[in-house]
Amino acid sequence: MAQKKSSTWLLLLGTVAFYALIKALQLSGLMNDYWQRVLDQALIATIGALGLSIIYGFTGQFSLGHAAFYGLGAYSAGLLDKLYGSVDNYAFLLVSLLVGMLVAGLLALLVGLPILRLRSDYLGIATLGFGIIVKVGMDNSSKLFPPLGGATGMSGVPQSATFDLIFLLTVLAIIFTRNFVFSSYGRACTAVREDEIASDVMGINTTRIKVLSFVLGCMLAGLAGGVYAHRYPFLHPSSFDFLKSFDFLLIVVLGGLGSMTGTVVTAVAWVFLLEGLRFVLGESFIDFRGVIYALILIVSIILRPQGIFSGKELAALVPQSLTAWRQKDKEVTHVSS
What we know:
Layout: H1 2-28, H2 33-58, H3 66-84, H4 90-115, H5 120-139, E1 154-155, H6 163-181, H7 184-194, H8 196-201, H9 206-229, E2 234-235, H10 242-255, H11 260-281, H12 284-303, H13 320-336
Antiparallel strand pairs: 1-2
Helix pairs in contact: 2-6, 2-7, 2-9, 2-10, 2-11, 3-4, 3-5, 3-9, 4-9, 7-9, 10-11, 10-12
């Protein structure tokens, strides 16, 4: 019990230290509004990337439509708050975020049941197709419901998501992912990723596990989209196209498949890197964005194909009972050999 508590205390102390650092930067004036928005975007990207990490990093389901669920969460939560909410109504903000998660999760369930029977590249193509359908639907949504804005975008969502709320939701998303990954369901996800046929033979309901991980991952994407809608005043379908899915995919791959630590660190670094490139390249950044993505991916695959963290985790994100068990197992193996 003491070992489990030590891991929790490490995570808590790290969270408090990071929060105190940001608050100190804010009070000192070093964190202006521009960089505050970049940091908020990095935290939002972390929530969405953790969702794809569950789907692809831990379960091995290659998805190229993650931005679609990100956009569904943004539009559904934003629309609800635009019609019925206000800046000061934080209770309704939480309700709208929950609705965004549920909409993304429900559509993930409906889509996942048929397409998760596919594997590898076929699954990626199917999810890519769904993402394109959602993007086209957003472009033409104003024909069915004008407040959605259609191709001109949607505005008027109350900007009620503060840094404190975004930070809290990011921490909760990390804790949720940690608890899921190290649960029996998380172990089943890892087994499916390593060998789906063997997992099926050993009695794991692989279809159920794949659908479960897909729905949970997409709900996190919906949560990230809902927060995005309440932090940035303008939503446009182009913000949720294929390249946005590629953003999440690059974060998970560069951080290392099966590593929450890699996903969190890379998500924050990736957003700040893109903002730095946008500052250096100016308007030409949009034209060269695809080239930059491809070059970064090629270089990372050549130099470190296993990712930055290669499946490893910080001690604060690993239950200490599991760490102690692994150490004991190593000692027993060493003695027996």
